[in-house]
Design a protein that fits this description.
Layout: H1 7-25, H2 32-39, H3 48-64, H4 81-94, H5 97-107, H6 129-139, H7 151-156, H8 159-179, H9 183-186, H10 192-195, E1 204-207, E2 213-220, H11 233-241, E3 246-252, E4 259-264, H12 267-270
Parallel strand pairs: 2-3
Antiparallel strand pairs: 1-2, 3-4
Protein name: Nuclear factor NOVEIN
Pfam families: NOV_C
Organism: Haloferula helveola
C-alpha cells in the first residue's frame, strides 16, 4: 500500500498547481505534461495517476475554500483535509499575488460569447449531489487563514457574467423550442430579470413542449461545472412553490466553451443548501 503523502510532497504539488492556476487565470498557456514531468522526480516514487489524483484533491479543496480550481482536474473529495488545507494556507501566504489574479478574473467584464451550436451546450450529466455538493458543504467547515473572502461568491456579483449567461440561456431556449417546431412559443420567451428586475425569483420565462410555463433561474460561472453556486432564499422558495414548472440552468466554462446542465424542480431536493449569511434584527 502506498505511503501517505508527506508535507514536502504536498507542498511541491500545491506550488506547481498554483503556478498553473495563476497562468490559466491570467490567460497564459500552460503545459500540464511538462509540469508533471518536472515534478514527479521530486516526489517519493509517485505515479502519474497518483499525481493526477492529488491535483484533483487540490481542486476539491479550493472549491471548499472559495477559490476557483484549475481546469482539467475534476474535484476528488476524499483527501487529507488537515494536511492539504494547512499546506494551501502556507503556500498562499508565500504567494499572495495569486489573490490579485483571482480577483481580476472574477471581476473581469465579460461579453456574451458567440456559440455556433446552441443546443450542443447542453450537458446531460450534472454533478452528483452526494459527491459534489456534500463535499462543498463539509468543506465550508474547514478554515484557511489567508483566504479573507469567498471568490466564487464574489464572482456572482459580477453582473456582466450573470447577464451573459442569462442571454445565452434565452438563445438556447429559443433554439430548443424551434427544434421542437414550437416557433410560436419561442417568440414569447421573456427575459424577466432584465424586463422586471431581480425580485421575481427567476430569470427567464420559457415553455415546455406542451406550452406550459417553464420558470428558469440561471446561475453562471467562468469556472468548472462542480463549482458551488449561490442562491437567495426568495429563489429557493419560488422553486419550491413552482417545482413542477421550474428548472435551474447552471452555465459553466463561460469564457472558454460555454456549457450548461439543468436541475429541474425543487432546489432543496437537487442540492445541499448551506447557510452562508444570517439576518439579525433587534
Amino acid at each position: 500500500m502506498p505511503a501517505d503523502w508527506t508535507h514536502s510532497e504536498v507542498r511541491l504539488t500545491v506550488e506547481a498547481y498554483f503556478r498553473m492556476l495563476n497562468d490559466e487565470l491570467a490567460g497564459r498557456p500552460i503545459n500540464k505534461t511538462a509540469v508533471r514531468r518536472e515534478l514527479l522526480p521530486r516526489l517519493d516514487n509517485r505515479s502519474n495517476g497518483a499525481l493526477e489524483f492529488k491535483n484533483c484533491n487540490i481542486s476539491a479543496a479550493l472549491l471548499t475554500l472559495g477559490l476557483p480550481p484549475l481546469d482539467g482536474y475534476k474535484p476528488r473529495w476524499n483527501y487529507q483535509k488537515d494536511l492539504l488545507h494547512a499546506v494551501i494556507s502556507e503556500v498562499l501566504r508565500a504567494q499572495p499575488d495569486l489573490f490579485k489574479t483571482v480577483e481580476l478574473a472574477v471581476n473581469e467584464q465579460i461579453e456574451k460569447p458567440e456559440v455556433s451550436d446552441l443546443l450542443a451546450m447542453l450537458d446531460p450529466e450534472c454533478p452528483e449531489r452526494s459527491e459534489i455538493y456534500h463535499g462543498v458543504q463539509e468543506g465550508n467547515r474547514q478554515p484557511c487563514a489567508p483566504i479573507k473572502r469567498n471568490y466564487l461568491e464574489l464572482e456572482t456579483r459580477n453582473r456582466s457574467i450573470g447577464l451573459a449567461g442569462e442571454s445565452l440561456v434565452v438563445e438556447f431556449e429559443r433554439s430548443r423550442l424551434i427544434s421542437l417546431n414550437r416557433e410560436h412559443l419561442a417568440d414569447r420567451i421573456e427575459h424577466v430579470s432584465e424586463e422586471q428586475g431581480d425580485g421575481t425569483g427567476y430569470d427567464i420565462r420559457s415553455f415546455d413542449e406542451s406550452g406550459r410555463d417553464l420558470f428558469i433561474e440561471v446561475k453562471t460561472t467562468r469556472f468548472r461545472k462542480e463549482s458551488p453556486f449561490f442562491i437567495s432564499s426568495n429563489e429557493v422558495q419560488f422553486a419550491e412553490r413552482h417545482a413542477r414548472n421550474y428548472s435551474l440552468y447552471r452555465v459553466y466554462s463561460l469564457s472558454r466553451a460555454p456549457r450548461l446542465f439543468t436541475l429541474p424542480g425543487s432546489v432543496q431536493k437537487s442540492c445541499h443548501l448551506t447557510a452562508t449569511q444570517f439576518r439579525a434584527t433587534l
